[in-house]
Design brief:
It is a single chain. By secondary structure, the chain is an alpha/beta fold. It folds into 3 domains: about 60 residues, PUA domain (Archaeosine Trna-guanine Transglycosylase, Chain: A, domain 4, Roll), CATH 2.30.130.10; about 110 residues, Transcription Regulator spoIIAA, CATH 3.30.750.80; about 190 residues, Vaccinia Virus protein VP39 (Rossmann fold, 3-Layer(aba) Sandwich), CATH 3.40.50. It has 10 helices and 20 strands. The strands form 4 sheets. A 7-stranded mixed β-sheet has the order 16-15-14-17-18-20-19, with helices on both faces. Strands 2-6-5-4-1-3 form a 6-stranded mixed β-sheet. A 5-stranded mixed β-sheet has the order 7-8-9-10-11. Strand 7 and strand 8 form a beta hairpin. Helix 2 crosses helix 4 and helix 5 runs parallel beside helix 6. The longest helix has 18 residues. The protein is globular, with a radius of gyration of 22 Å. The chain starts with a strand and ends with a strand. The mean pLDDT is about 95.
Length: about 400
Amino acid sequence: MNNCRVLLKPKKEESLRRFHPWVFSGAINKIAGNPEEGELVDVYSAAGDFLAVGHYQIGSIAVRVLSFTPIEIDASFWQERIRVAYQLRRSLKLAGVENNNTYRLIHGEGDSLPGLIIDVYANTAVIQAHSVGMHLARKQIADALHAEIIEINNIYYKSDATLPFKANLENEDGYLYDGKEIETAIENGLLFHVDWVKGQKTGFFVDQRENRSLLEFYSTGRSVLNMFCYTGGFSFYAMRGGANLVHSVDSSAKAISLTKQNVELNFPGDERHEAFADDAFKYLDKMGDNYDLIILDPPAFAKHKNVLRNALQGYRKLNAIAFEKIKPGGILFTFSCSQVVSKENFRLAVFSAAAQSGRNVRILHQLTQPADHPVNIYHPEGEYLKGLVLFVE
C-alpha cells in the first residue's frame, strides 16, 4: 500500500473498471496525503473500493496506471514487465534473430507501462520517459533491462525533450549502463547508424519497419522521392527493391549526412541515390514530374488538439502538391504520426487533396504501426500512426 490515496467522484470509476490506464484530474474528488509529482498512489472509488496503483502527475492525466491489482511496484515488477514484453518481441521474430536486432521493446500503454518507451538498437537500449514517474524509476528500469536481456550492454537515457516541461526536473540525458562497443543496428537485413544522442526521438523511427518493407515491394524500376527522409530508412529499402533512382530530402543537414552514411553502408558507391538538404514545400514546389513513387512521412503536424485545424491544412497542402506532381501511374505513400489526428481526419485531408488535383486515385493499402508498437485494447488512443498507399492515374 502507498502513502497517498486518490479518491474518485461517484460514478467516475467506470473507465478504470474497463481497464483504461488513465485517471483524469476531473474525476478526482480528493487526495488523501500530499503526493509529489511522480510518486506512486493508490486509486479508490467513492465507495472505497481499490481500483489501481499508478504514478501521480500534475495535469489533465493525473494518474497513469501501472496495475489494477494492489501489488508492490518494485524490482521484480519491472523485471516481469520487461520479460513479458521481450518474449512478445521474440515471438514476433524481431528480437533474437540474425537479420534483425532493432525493435521497440516497451511501447507505453501498449505494454502496460504508461509513460515509458524503450527502443533497442543491437546491443544498445534507449529509454525515453514521458512522465515524471518513469523518470524517477529510470535506474530501476535500467537495472531490470540489464538483468533480463543479456544482449543489451549499453543503456542510454534520453528524456530531456519528452518530460513535462513544468515539472522542473534536473534531467540530464546520458548512459545509465555503458558497457561495450556499440554494434551496428540491423533491420530486415539492412544496416544503419543510429544517433540516439542528438537525433530525433530515440534516434530512428522503428515504427515504419513494415511500411518500409512494403515500399521495397513497390520500388522496382521506379523513380523514388523520399520526403522528410530523416536518416534514410525508406531510401535504402527502395534501393534494395530495385528503384532506378532515389532522392532523399530533409531540412536537416545532419539528417542528410546520416542518410548518406546509411546508404553507403548498404550500397557503397551506388550512384542511384542523391540527398538534398531543403525545405519540403520548397522542394516539392520546384520539382517537376520526375517521380513515380513519393513518400510523405512528415513529423507530427499536431501535438495538441488546439492546432488540429492547422495540421489538417498542412496535410492537405502537402498531399495536394504530391498529387499534382507525381507521374501518371505513380504510387504515393503518405503518413500522419500525430496522435490527435484521427484516421478519419487524415483520410479526409488526403481525399480533399486528391479531389483538388482532379486525378483518379485508388487506395491500395491502409497502414498503421507494427506489432512491436501494440495498441492496448482498452486504450485505443494508442493507435497513432496512419498511412495510405495510393495509386494515382
